[in-house]
Prior knowledge:
The chain is built from 8 helices and 20 strands. It has helices at about 15-25, 65-70, 115-120, 165-170, 180-185, 205-210, 250-265, 330-345; strands at about 5-10, 30-35, 45-50, 50, 75-80, 85, 95-100, 110, 130, 135-140, 145-150, 155-160, 170-175, 195-200, 210-215, 225-230, 235-245, 275-280, 310, 315-320. Strands 1, 2, 9, 10, 11, 12, 13, 19 and 20 form a 9-stranded mixed β-sheet that branches. A 7-stranded mixed β-sheet has the order 7-6-15-16-17-14-18. Strands 3-4 form a two-stranded antiparallel sheet. Bound molecules: flavin-adenine dinucleotide. The site of flavin-adenine dinucleotide has 39 residues, from helix 1 and helix 8.
Amino acid sequence: MVTTTSDYIIIGAGLSGLTSAYHLNKSGKTDFTILESRDRIGGRIVTQNGIDFGATWFQTHHETVIGLLDELGVAKYHQYNQGKSVLVYSTMAPEHYFENDPDTPSAYRIKGNSQALIQALASPFSKKIKLNTSVTDIHETKNGIRVETDKETYFAKKVIVTIPPLIATRISFTPELPSEVNNAMNKTHTWMSNAIKVGLTFKTPFWREKNFSGMVIGQVGAVTELYDHNDDVNSHYALMGFVNEGLRDVSEENRKQRILDYLSKYLGAEVLDYLTYQEKDWSQDKHTSCETIKSIYMSPSYGNPVFAKSYMNGRLRLSGAETSAIHGGYMDGAIYSGINVAEKFME
Ligand SMILES: Cc1cc2nc3c(=O)[nH]c(=O)nc-3n(C[C@H](O)[C@H](O)[C@H](O)COP(=O)(O)OP(=O)(O)OC[C@H]3O[C@@H](n4cnc5c(N)ncnc54)[C@H](O)[C@@H]3O)c2cc1C
């Protein structure tokens, strides 16, 4: 079995791992390898047909996202929210319509979709990323850390584990991590790992033409949240939202029919003339989820202090959105922890 040696190994090519790599690279620490189990980079950030099936929005208080986008020269723009929005709040009462307050800025989106951030981050060191490489074991040795994967064996002086803590419990650590770390990992819900997203593309932005914002909100129907998902110059037309988790276990065909019926009821029959229709149930994605999720969104607390410590004699650190004490779960937390862990390892 081939053995590759580097100063640093980063496990996971999601936003956090790529941010750490970007910071190491920027600081002249270029001897690193990134191991990623998927056949793509980005983790919970994925764009298909111009639709973000993972992370999409951020707010003005997400300062590390904004700082990183500015540094990389990736532009942002506001989520479209003009016109009538629909609130479906009861199965018995009629729907309500409302206008969004023009003085309250909507959330930001990334120009070129969220994948633009991932591509800009990874481009300086894309050759150092090993895709389709799943880490199975992490062993502390006399001089460093040995990382076993389903392919090669890797060796490094320092290792950053960026995979969601609950997923990281699948890895065998030798010596074992302290029990308080294991407990914290087991209790840390992976943010949004229960979400089901739906995205549709269209020939025309028919909802805008009818003075709808594209926003349809309510917990009682097939889609709990829907938004306009056109690009920043309004040349690619799409709607994207979250599917009611009550439809997780029905057949694909049945779910699609109920989603289309629901959306056409509130936005018009034009919904049925979609160009593409796609869903993504993150609970079925083994690289993000390992839970049997049957319930609604949880209210997890992130950034357990045990995640901020180093292990294996200072050679192993944990990172990722769920480990972050600031804006845990969000892109902002992923970037914050990615920067933080890289800085700690360069001290
Ligand atoms: C549907 C959805 C909607 C979201 N919406 C928003 C939003 O609007 N705004 C926002 O701020 N955040 C949102 N988020 C959260 C956001 O996506 C995350 O905060 C962020 O992407 C996490 O980055 P990360 O690097 O910490 O983790 P991840 O992206 O999960 O990266 C971890 C990486 O590790 C890899 N991996 C797993 N196991 C192994 C292994 N054994 N060996 C090697 N590699 C492995 C994974 O494939 C993955 O690439 C959303 C998430 C989802 C799923």
